[in-house]
């Protein structure tokens, strides 16, 4: 009996080993393959056209040079020989929209300080009136009198005094 049982045991072991090897294997579950996400690549930037640099033009700004006018002793009347000078000055002022002009009235040292301040103001106003009559806007012009306080020429003679009786224009 023990013999049968060894043989039977061997047969059983052989079947136990062979049968599972012959059995049909189940297929592994199919993994669902997801399609790869498409990487979104931004389109390349448009080619820039070469822009031409704006041409820098050199603009020459001509300075405004206004010429002084001179007066006779104790007078604020514009002499005829200075009218063409004032006309030239007025043309320059009209050409430049962005400037303003201060007309300074000056006197020689003769006379009182108060009188010379008044005379200097009259001289400056006479020039302003000439400019406005020519067409210069009054708001572009202001006047001030320095009387005898700012002499152009030092000295105490007619030559120095003649240079100090003037209307001087300052461009702002």
Tell me about the biggest sheet? 4 strands, mixed
Number of helices: 4
Find the count of extended strands (DSSP E, 2+ residues).
4
Mean pLDDT: 87
Low-confidence stretches: none
For the largest beta sheet, what order do the strands appear in spatially? 1-4-2-3
The level of helicity is: 25-40%
Terminal Cα span = 138 Å
Rg result? 54 Å
Could you tell me the strand content as a percent range? Answer: 5-15%
Following the backbone from N to C, one meets helices and strands in this order, namely: HEHEHEHE
Shape from CA axes?
A: rod-shaped
Structural class: alpha+beta
Features:
172 residues, alpha+beta
Q: How would the blueprint of this fold be written?
A:
Layout: H1 2-22, E1 69-70, H2 80-95, E2 101-106, H3 113-134, E3 141-147, H4 158-164, E4 166-171
Parallel strand pairs: 2-3
Antiparallel strand pairs: 1-4, 2-4
Helix pairs in contact: 2-3
Structural write-up:
Helix content is 38%, strand content 12%. It contains four helices and four strands; from the N terminus they run αβαβαβαβ. The chain has helices spanning 2-22, 80-95, 113-134, 158-164, and strands at 69-70, 101-106, 141-147, 166-171. It has a four-stranded mixed beta sheet with strand order 1-4-2-3. α3 links the parallel β2 and β3.
Concise account of the structure shown:
It contains four helices and four strands.
């Amino acid at each position: 009996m023990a013999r049968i049982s060894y043989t039977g045991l061997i047969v059983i072991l052989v079947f136990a080993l062979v049968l599972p090897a012959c059995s049909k294997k189940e297929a592994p579950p199919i993994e669902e393959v997801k399609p790869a996400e498409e990487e979104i690549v931004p389109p390349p930037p448009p080619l820039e056209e070469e822009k031409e640099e704006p041409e820098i033009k050199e603009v020459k700004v001509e300075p405004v040079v206004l010429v002084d006018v001179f007066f006779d002793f104790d007078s604020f009347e514009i002499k005829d020989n200075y009218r063409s000078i004032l006309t030239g000055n007025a043309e320059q002022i009209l050409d430049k929209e962005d400037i303003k002009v201060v007309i300074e009235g000056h006197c020689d040292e003769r006379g009182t300080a108060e009188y010379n301040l008044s005379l200097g103001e009259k001289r400056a106003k006479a020039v302003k009136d000439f400019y406005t009559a020519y067409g210069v806007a009054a708001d572009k012009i202001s006047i001030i009198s320095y009387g005898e306080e700012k002499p152009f020429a030092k000295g105490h003679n007619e030559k120095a005094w003649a240079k100090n009786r003037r209307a001087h224009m300052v461009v702002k």
